[in-house]
């Protein structure tokens, strides 16, 4: 029953019931007091460390992709294995080198035929040396590449381990006059191998088409024969030419000053058996005479490729360019013109 003169709104306000208990939110000062009291009783251990961890300046780098062997030194130790006397003044020195992708970054590795090895003997000066062995096949690096990628075998767990080491043989073509220290290298000497120099022969492009250029003629002299040997023995997975699969004629015209200066004579037959490349040698004739006198060579200019390995002799290279022009051979690879340099990602050490 409503009292006289009392509105419904006033009745609603006056009949409101208060809760039995009142819950009030602590003030900021009270909250601080409670926190301080709690922290005084409990030791500060992990909380502060967690907060510092999140504020670590280079924390984002913990999750960044890493280049294999990016933190490894550029120069690594090698070992003398043996040498082979090619001529009275030229040796092929065989050394053992590290090739593991966990220890040798890709930018420093021997990747292309025509690259030069950087060598130091007994902490001496750096020397760039022609290489007569081909780049190392991927089969030697298969296991270590799987490790670098982080692959695991069945039932294998990730554990701390040592870096994998893989060694292989590297052949250096040296003369006693130009590289006396390497020519006289022995097991008692200290050998260091650095990043390989140059980008090698420019073998990319139409030359890689075995049906587009089934006929290949190679001209070599001086240290160019070392590059020719590496090219003949290179497998297809390291930019080899697949010479065995090319159906046309294949020749290696090798010129030297004297008969005694011709190198690898005992290997010509094995090269021909493995690659189908016939070796033609001469000591007096010019390259043009050697090419013209080869009555067994049959070729179509449009499907023939020429590779000029003159060992840095510019005059001989000009002679060969003129020869190719007369023979109407347009696909030409020159030792003096290297392939395009590889561009590595910005986070690499060499960037």
From TrEMBL:
InterPro entries: FNR_nucleotide-bd. It comes from the Eukaryota. This is FAD-binding FR-type domain-containing protein. It comes from Auxenochlorella protothecoides (Green microalga). The lineage of its organism: Eukaryota, Viridiplantae, Chlorophyta, core chlorophytes, Trebouxiophyceae.
């Amino acid at each position: 029953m409503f009292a006289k003169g009392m509105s419904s709104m006033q009745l609603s306000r006056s009949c409101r019931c208060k809760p039995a208990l009142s819950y009030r939110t602590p003030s900021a000062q009270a909250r601080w007091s409670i926190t301080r009291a709690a922290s005084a009783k409990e030791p500060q251990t992990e909380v502060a460390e967690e907060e510092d961890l999140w504020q670590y300046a280079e924390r984002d780098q913990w999750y960044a992709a890493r280049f294999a062997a990016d933190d490894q030194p550029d120069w690594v130790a090698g070992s003398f294995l043996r040498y082979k006397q090619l001529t009275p003044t030229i040796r092929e020195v065989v050394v053992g080198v590290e090739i593991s992708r966990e220890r040798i970054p890709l930018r420093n590795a021997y990747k292309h035929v025509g690259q030069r090895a950087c060598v130091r003997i007994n902490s001496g000066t750096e020397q760039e040396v022609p290489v007569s062995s081909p780049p190392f096949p991927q089969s030697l690096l298969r296991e270590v590449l799987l490790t670098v990628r982080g692959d695991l075998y069945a039932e294998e767990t990730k554990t701390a381990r040592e870096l994998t080491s893989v060694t292989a043989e590297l052949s250096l073509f040296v003369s006693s006059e130009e590289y006396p220290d390497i020519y006289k290298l022995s097991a008692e000497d200290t050998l260091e191998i650095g990043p390989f120099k140059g980008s090698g022969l420019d073998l990319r492009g139409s030359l890689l088409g075995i049906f587009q250029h089934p006929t290949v003629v190679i001209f070599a002299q001086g240290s160019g024969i070392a590059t020719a040997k590496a090219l003949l023995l290179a497998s297809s997975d390291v930019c080899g030419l697949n010479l065995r699969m090319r159906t046309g004629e294949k020749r290696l015209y090798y010129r030297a000053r004297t008969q005694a200066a011709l190198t690898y004579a005992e290997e010509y037959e094995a090269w021909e058996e493995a690659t189908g490349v016939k070796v033609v040698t001469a000591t007096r004739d010019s390259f043009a005479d050697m090419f013209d006198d080869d009555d067994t060579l049959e070729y179509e200019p449009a499907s023939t490729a020429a590779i000029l390995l003159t060992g840095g002799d510019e005059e001989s290279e000009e002679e060969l360019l003129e020869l190719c022009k007369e023979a109407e051979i347009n696909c030409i690879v020159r030792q003096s013109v290297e392939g395009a340099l590889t561009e590595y990602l910005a986070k690499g050490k060499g960037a």
